[in-house]
Design a protein that fits this description.
The chain contains 14 helices and 15 strands. The chain is an alpha+beta fold. It is elongated and about 115 Å long. The relative contact order is 0.07.
């Protein structure tokens, strides 16, 4: 057994008598493949040294791809000296038939008092484990955040893409009717000056903004225009004409003016020709708006990830980053009945930092604020320049919500690693720890003030 322990790289400088202490106070066991040593949530009572085989820590869900940590021959896991870990949220299982030496945690205190070199290497194992697990969990948190943004982005992109496809199909069908409209126009007897007058009026309507009508107002306009068209025998009762006329603000006064210009014999053909142009313009406008929305989303992605810039420190427009983050989280805002109030000063100076990191700050804080208002509420984001007495200038950004607030007894713990009030599986407890780390990385500060109905995070960043 002593020779086996000598094969552990970490024990290279540990005296034999200290390794013998492990043997004397431990229990050698053979563990069959598939045996679960510790279930999720159970107490971890043993320091485990893998003499042979493979032990893994996994989620217990989808096989090898869910392995969190793998310990092959000469691996060390479980309870370690001075570790505060008592249980883990995952399971420890033997992936293959394994031979292990286990020492109960109650004996580790004696080891720490009697055997310095052995304790030293095991404490180093503990710090390495904490560092690796923290890195893993932070990566998981980033990936979860990216997953939420990706899901929302897919939803946001689906709407304008569907609108473009729908409008293009409608345009295709609409253009098939153009020859009939052309035939009607060819039979009209209109002087050139009358055609110019009608064209001028048409382009005025095309250039003006669409009317915002209530259902009652729209119904009233439909009745008036339908009656007018019926009176003059223009496609009596045809709402295919009425709809576009209403959308572009045509009234019975406009139609009466048009009647005076072209006469009753030509009013039907001219009206159909005008509506044909209005429909085309409407479809083109829908395609343009949808394309612009896609462009806005793509621009927000570029601003958020800064994919077109280097990874180093650079000047950062905080307002641009906050707006891009809100664009990517817009699906969550809409789905949660939260009203966003954005108050960013127009003269905000740029700060020097890492834009991708700062956008992660806004993402975590805004996401948390929305989660704090499950029944809806108000999210207020403001930024302003702040001058300190020491002559330094900062940008102060506040993110406030009207949620239930943070209880006094946990307020001092919210920035601690792995501390979370969310249900299991819905939070890693690293969001605010990451935020604080990023703010510190930028030589800034973050504070929180909370009471029922108002929670406010204040982030202060130097401009140079």
């Amino acid at each position: 057994m002593l020779e086996q322990l000598r094969q552990f790289p970490v024990f290279a400088n540990v005296p034999n008598e200290q390794l013998q202490w492990l043997i004397d106070n431990g229990e050698e066991q053979r563990i069959n493949a598939g045996t679960v040593l510790v279930k999720p949530g159970e107490t971890v009572n043993y320091l485990t040294l893998v003499l042979d085989g493979r032990i893994v820590i996994d989620t217990g869900q989808n096989g090898p791809e869910d392995d969190i940590a793998v310990y092959d021959k000469y691996g060390i896991l479980g309870a370690l000296p001075y570790s505060r870990m008592t249980s883990i949220p995952n399971r420890i299982v033997a992936e293959s038939t394994s031979q292990v030496l286990q020492v109960h945690r109650d004996k580790l205190r004696d080891m720490a008092c009697l055997h310095y070199e052995l304790t030293e290497v095991l404490v180093q194992q503990m710090t390495t484990r904490v560092r690796n697990f923290t890195r893993y969990t932070q990566q998981e948190d980033k990936m979860a955040s990216l997953g939420r943004l990706s899901a929302g982005l897919a939803h946001e992109l689906n709407n304008p893409v569907a609108a473009i496809v729908r409008s293009a199909e409608t345009m295709k069908a609409h253009l098939r009717a153009t020859p009939d409209a052309f035939k009607q126009i060819m039979h009209l007897q209109l002087a050139d000056d009358k055609v110019d007058i009608v064209n001028e009026q048409l382009f005025k309507k095309l250039d003006q903004k669409a009317l915002q009508l209530s259902l009652l107002e729209r119904s009233s306009y439909e009745d008036e225009l339908t009656d007018w068209l019926d009176d003059y025998g223009v496609d009596s009762g045809n709402l295919d004409l009425v709809g576009p006329l209403i959308e572009f603000g045509f009234t019975t006064d406009d139609l009466n003016w048009l009647l005076d210009q072209v006469g009753p014999d030509n009013i039907g053909g001219v009206t159909s020709w005008i509506v044909n142009n209005l429909v085309t313009q409407s479809l083109v406008r829908d395609i343009s708006d949808a394309s612009e929305r896609i462009g806005t989303l793509v621009g927000s992605i570029k601003n958020y990830t800064h994919m077109d810039r280097g990874a180093g420190k650079t000047t950062v427009d905080l307002g641009e980053g906050i707006r891009s983050t809100l664009t990517l989280l817009d699906h969550k805002v809409k789905g949660s009945k939260v009203t966003v109030m954005l108050n960013l000063a127009n003269d905000l100076p740029v700060v020097c930092g890492w834009p991708g990191e700062l956008n992660q700050v806004w993402t975590n804080l805004i996401d948390n604020a929305i989660d704090a208002m499950p029944d809806g509420g108000a999210l207020t984001i403001s930024s302003e320049v702040e001058h300190h007495n020491d002559g330094l200038t900062f940008v102060l950004t506040k993110i406030a919500d009207t949620g239930t607030g943070i209880p006094d007894d946990i307020r001092d713990s919210i920035f601690d690693p792995f501390f979370t009030t969310k249900e299991i599986g819905k939070g890693t407890g690293l969001g605010l720890d990451i935020v604080q780390g990023i703010v510190n990385h930028h030589n800034g500060s973050i504070k929180v003030a909370s009471q029922p109905g108002h929670t406010e995070f204040s982030i202060c960043l130097p401009i140079n």
